[in-house]
Write a structure and sequence with these properties.
single chain; mainly alpha
């Protein structure tokens, strides 16, 4: 394909959606394996601190071993690993043992593809669209990891923060001063809430990963977007939390991860933050 064709909005959007589906397939691996990799590393460090030799384990990373069925262990063939369509062609079941494959896998692929498509339409061909795709991809991974484990790994939040500052070094989404202040204010705002809640109740209301995630969002979008992100995430989190308690799916003392709501609010602010803030302040 002629590279100049990438400047065509329709071709660029189609390629972005295709890329998003492939990235979503990789995110499924990250979401499943990264927490296990961190757990293995923690266990090895603890063994070393105890003066023990860490137990030998098979290589385990984002690329090894190859994807396989968790039930029968059969490797997933390339034709069955096509994003979304592979799952549909298999009828949501393993080709080897007929075990059910979670619908979450194609859902993550479809969500990522949709976000990449929207980024391409919203920003058009250029670095801003590429940055938005990276921002959304990392937030998708963090959302599902936090939902599964109530962890927001530094392996993702800290690179996301630095990437935001790098992007705004060139003014992609805001000026560098706003980005730096956004990173500091994002971290310190939730850090302050955490300690105030702990002093009043004696309990921990959120994890340190939430501070870093909001700092990363501030680094990408600037401090001006932080009130909107905090408001949106708090409202959505409160509504979902109350709904889960009413539906008896969560006890009142069972923690609910806040990361997914911060991530959703961050993506809303990325695409619609400026019009929402302008409407809020009554600007034309």
């Amino acid at each position: 394909m002629n590279l100049t064709a990438l400047g065509d909005p329709v071709i660029f959007a189609a390629l972005a959606a295709l890329l998003g589906l492939m990235v979503g397939s990789f995110l499924n691996v990250v979401i499943h394996r990264l927490p296990q990799m961190i757990q293995r590393d923690w266990e090895a460090q603890c063994a070393e601190l105890r003066g023990e030799t860490p137990a030998a384990q098979e290589p385990y990373s984002l690329v090894r071993p190859r994807s396989h069925c968790p039930q029968c262990g059969a490797q997933i063939a390339a034709r069955d690993n096509i994003p979304v369509f592979g799952w549909l062609l298999l009828g949501g079941r393993c080709r080897s043992c007929n075990a059910r494959i979670s619908v979450r896998y194609p859902l993550i692929e479809a969500i990522t593809g949709g976000l990449f498509l929207f980024a391409a339409i919203e920003f058009g061909p250029g670095w801003a669209a590429g940055g938005a795709m990276l921002f959304c991809a990392v937030l998708v991974a963090l959302t599902f990891i936090d939902a599964d484990t109530q962890l927001l790994p530094d392996d993702l939040t800290l690179p996301l923060l630095w990437a935001g500052l790098l992007a705004n070094l060139f003014g992609l989404y805001t000026d560098l001063t706003s980005a730096v202040i956004g990173a500091m204010a994002g971290y310190l705002s939730l850090w302050s809430v955490y300690w105030l809640f702990r002093l009043v109740t004696g309990k921990e209301g959120m994890g340190f990963g939430d501070f870093k995630l909001l700092a990363a969002i501030g680094a990408w979008l600037g401090w001006q977007m932080l009130p909107l992100v905090i408001l949106l995430s708090s409202v959505v989190g409160a509504v979902v939390g109350i709904a889960l308690i009413v539906a008896a799916r969560h006890g009142r003392n069972v923690p609910i991860p806040f990361g997914p709501y911060l991530a959703a609010a961050g993506m809303i602010a990325l695409f619609w933050g400026r019009p929402i803030v302008d409407a809020w302040l009554g600007k034309a």
